Amino acid sequence: MKREMVRLSKAIARALRHSPWLFELEIDQEGWTPIDDLLEALSRARDEWRSLTRDDLMELIAQSDKKRYQIEGDKIRAYYGHSLPGRLLKTPAQPPDVLYHGTTDQVLDAIRKIGLLPMRRQYVHLSTEQETANLVAQRKKGKIVILEIRAGEAYQDGIGFYLGNEMVWLSDPIPPEYIVVPTA
Question: What is the pTM of this model?
Answer without folding.
Answer: 0.59
